Amino acid sequence: MKENFEKQEKTFENQLKKVFVGVSKDKKAVANQLIHELAFVASDLTELKENIKENGTIVTAGNGAPIANPAQKQYVSILPKWSALIDQIVKLYPTDDKPINKKDTTALLDKMAGGKVKK
């Protein structure tokens, strides 16, 4: 599971670097750090979403009582961080330039929202 998470994180990170290739050199270090964090958060959200899909929103506690799936609570608590990271990195991008390939950008954001990563 850890290997899959790290592989997915690296895939997201590589894809994000391609999307945000137009960030100026003076902002590149900050952009790379944001990309790294965004890839981690996106991987975490994907894993949590898979858990929710697999186990449902209600799970059984150790005593047999139904409880809200803890993965769902974590998912909801991480969404604001994901949104803030997206906002920060988009602000680094030059306003007069657009991402190299809009189709790739849309596909990447779809994957980060819980879709499957193609290898």
Automatic annotation (TrEMBL):
The lineage's top-level taxon is Bacteria
Q: What is this protein called?
A: P27 family phage terminase small subunit
